[in-house]
Design a protein that fits this description.
Elements: E1 17-20, H1 24-35, E2 40-44, E3 57-61, H2 69-75, E4 84-87, E5 89-93, E6 99-103, E7 109-113, H3 121-131, E8 135-138, H4 142-145, E9 150-151, E10 160-168, E11 174-178, E12 188-194, E13 197-204, H5 211-226, E14 231-240, E15 249-250, E16 253-255, H6 271-287, H7 291-331, H8 334-341, H9 346-360
Parallel strand pairs: 1-2, 1-9, 2-8, 5-11, 9-16
Antiparallel strand pairs: 3-7, 4-7, 5-6, 10-13, 10-14, 11-12, 12-13, 15-16
Helix pairs in contact: 1-3, 1-6, 6-7, 7-8, 7-9
């Protein structure tokens, strides 16, 4: 069957819409379709949702738009019934161990748990999908699913790697960062704690072969700086896929989430973009709209700004990171500063060609390659 690449292939009438992948992007699409009365079947290669994350703590960013991300989820009809810790205060350290306060009147980020356990973001979306009658077929791969309308099968490349430990702790809830290439080349080291559970990781954008060295440096630094209390540690690592695609359509199939490369290129935050792209793909299917036009209208500006931020961040190294921390501290409002950083003004537009060459030049700016090979 041939498809017009600009429109999503889907069954009509009472036929079920097939989605590949039960991550946040795929489940957001399934929920949106089911709420509109469509029958939906989600094919997931693994045996449960979120299994590749274990019980990882991650950040649901809340700075790239004026609207609170929880309000965005509610407005899209998605569940916010997951455990979370809204972080309005935190501490960041530069490579010379100087501390900088991170403060905002409203949360800069929500710490959430990923994985299959009740209370996680993945479990909350799964439960909402099941309550709406969505059929989940676990252990079902794309090649077994037949024609799919929405492809949400996660990253295909390792543009960034977050490696470290999940653990139990007596520390109070909070988040801490270290910006130092000796701990996380081109990235940052972080410590997140929520309700007696913690994650400490090096989020690196280069030199993945030495990940264990960077992880141990990260653990040692947080022990020295903030008294990291880590009990029953479990090693965990995960890759991130970052790309600004020319199109997020492939053979009549809408590609969403990290499979399309929809992720913040500076810090690697992707959950907000994943769920938003899933909702947009579902709406395109329901209303007969052009999915590429929808995601460009709703996400391209922030994604482009993040590519410029990533290129600049990689260019200036530890001294640049120190300037960034000083500037946000002087602003008095870390969330507002980050929102400004993600603005897409004339400077960002002029730097985009340079940023594309530095960040995306390693491979083609399209999600087409190996899309159905999972």
């Amino acid at each position: 069957m041939s498809h017009d690449d600009r429109s999503i292939a889907h069954a009509s009438g009472d036929d079920a819409v097939a989605i590949a992948g039960a991550g946040p992007a795929g489940l957001a699409a399934a929920i949106t379709l089911a709420r509109a009365g469509r029958r939906v079947v989600v094919h997931e290669a693994r045996r449960e949702v979120g299994s590749r994350f274990g019980a990882d703590l991650q950040g649901l960013e809340n700075w790239s738009g004026h609207q609170d991300v929880l309000d965005e989820l509610r407005g899209a009809g998605l569940s916010d019934g997951f455990a979370r810790h809204g972080c309005s205060d935190g501490v960041a350290f530069d490579a010379w161990d100087r501390a900088y306060a991170l403060r905002s009147p409203s949360p800069m980020v929500y710490v959430v748990e990923r994985g299959p356990r009740p209370g996680s973001l993945d479990h909350a979306l799964l439960q909402q999908a099941l309550d709406l009658g969505v059929e989940l077929r676990f252990g079902s791969r794309v090649r077994e699913a037949g024609d799919v309308s929405i492809l949400a099968t996660g990253p295909t490349h390792a543009d960034a790697l977050a490696a470290g430990y999940q653990f139990e702790t007596r520390m109070a809830n909070g988040f801490w960062l270290v910006l130092d290439d000796a701990l996380a080349p081109g990235g940052y080291a972080y410590l997140l704690v929520m309700n007696g559970h913690g994650t400490v990781k090096s989020c690196m954008f280069a030199d993945f072969a030495r990940q264990h060295l960077y992880v141990e440096r990260t653990v040692a630094r947080f022990r020295r700086l903030v008294g990291l209390d880590m009990q029953a540690p479990r090693f965990h690592a995960g890759a991130g896929n970052i790309l600004m695609p020319q199109t997020a359509m492939h053979g009549g199939c809408a590609v969403v989430g990290e499979r399309a490369g929809f992720q913040d290129a500076l810090a690697g935050f992707g959950m907000r973009y994943a769920m938003r792209s899933g909702v947009l793909a579902a709406r395109a299917l329901l209303d007969g709209h052009d999915y590429d036009s929808l995601w460009r209208q709703n996400m391209a500006q922030a994604l482009c700004a993040s590519l410029v931020n990533r290129a600049l961040y990689a260019r200036f190294g530890n001294r640049g990171y120190r300037w960034l921390l000083q500037a946000q501290a002087a602003s008095g409002n870390s969330r507002a500063f980050l929102r400004w950083l993600y603005g897409h003004g004339a400077l960002s537009r002029s730097l985009m060609p340079w940023a594309r060459r530095r960040v995306g030049g390693r491979r083609a700016a399209s999600p087409d390659e190996a899309l159905l090979s999972r």
